[in-house]
Write a structure and sequence with these properties.
It is an enzyme of class 2 (transferase). By secondary structure, this protein is an alpha/beta fold. It is built from 10 helices and 13 strands. Helices cover 34% and strands 23% of the residues. Helix 1 packs across helix 8, helix 8 runs antiparallel to helix 9 and helix 9 crosses helix 10. The two termini are 29 Å apart. It binds adenosine-5'-diphosphate (ADP).
């Protein structure tokens, strides 16, 4: 089983010819509500890629909470540890211009109330083969979850961190991480190195394994004491790269918990991400296990 401790949002997306300036009103041409949040996205990616997946987090007691919960459950994610708390759910308010450019306001809502895994959550984490973390919850909560996984004894879950949005990482978090999966911008923000190979080497000074994703250029994998490996991206027509990284991280965790060696696991994750960028949306774009397997055998 994989557990994901993270954020769940509803993306409220307005599509318009151009975004309004301050004080201005424009008429847009479409509006969609799309379940999102990095935590929820990674949970959906892992569940669709074939793992039993539990999501630990919070939604509000507003009208959006049940919709976010239902989207996770529909994707096959176990939502028994998803709490409903008083107040609004997390939202991302997104304006997409016809040019493709966007501007986003994230309001954490219920996500901001999470202080750490509760006792029952810790029991779920300790039964898991991997714990997926991102940085859209308060940092203290993320650190508490990582430490809970670390304290699980010999059969402890692998702690996989997507350090997004990029923030300063406390040493006690890094000490508890087994695999870190930043994109190249996050890797540069964390390490100060804009060259991905140098950033990878810097990450490996504190974490045993790292993957730096490079968008359409693929991904770089490294572990302490071995040469870095570049796994190219699959050549596909990308229409929407939203949540490519979350799809990649969720699928990578599935592959690793199934015991695939690193390069094969990266190919599996790259295939899942390549399928997702060919479709619109975040969680709605994530491929199922049979789609990933079929893609890899072509
Ligand atoms: P993020 O979404 O976090 O910014 P990236 O853009 O680095 O992450 O993408 C993550 C992974 O998704 C890449 O390593 C690659 O495997 C896949 N991917 C992203 N963009 C493309 C693309 N245009 N074509 C094929 N695969 C892609």
């Amino acid at each position: 089983m994989i557990s994901v401790f993270g954020s769940a949002n509803m993306d409220l997306v307005a599509y318009t010819g151009r975004a309004p300036a301050l004080g201005e009103t424009v008429t847009g041409h479409a509006f969609r509500t799309i379940p999102g949040g990095k935590g929820a996205n990674q949970a959906v990616a892992a569940a669709r890629a074939g793992a039993r997946t539990a999501f630990i987090g919070a939604v509000g007691d507003d009208a959006l909470g049940p919709q976010i919960r239902a989207a996770l459950a529909d994707a096959g994610v176990d939502v028994s540890r998803l709490r409903t708390v008083p107040g609004p759910s997390g939202i991302a308010h997104i304006v997409v211009e016809d040019s493709g450019g966007n501007s986003i306001i994230v309001i954490p809502g219920a996500n901001g109330t999470v202080t750490g895994p509760a006792e029952d959550d810790v029991a779920v984490i300790r039964r898991s083969a991997a714990l997926l973390l991102q940085l859209e919850l308060p940092m203290d909560a993320v650190v508490a979850a990582a430490r809970a996984a670390r304290a699980s004894g010999r059969e402890r879950p692998a702690v996989v961190l997507t350090p997004a949005p990029a923030r300063e990482l406390p040493a006690e978090l890094l000490q508890a991480v087994d695999l870190i999966v930043p994109n190249e911008h996050e890797a540069a923000a964390i390490t100060g190195e804009t060259d991905p190979e140098k950033a990878l080497a810097a990450l490996l000074a504190t974490v045993p394994e790292a993957v730096v994703t490079l968008g359409g250029e693929g991904a770089l994998y490294g572990s302490r004491g071995s040469a870095p490996v570049h796994v190219p991206a699959f050549k596909v027509e990308a229409t929407d790269t939203t949540a490519a990284g979350d799809t990649f991280a969720g699928a990578l965790a599935v592959a690793r918990t199934e015991g695939m060696p690193p390069e094969r696991a990266l190919r599996f994750a790259s295939a899942a991400a390549a399928l997702s960028v060919q479709r619109e949306g975040a969680s709605t774009s994530m491929p199922t296990r049979s789609e990933i397997d079929a893609f890899l055998t072509v």
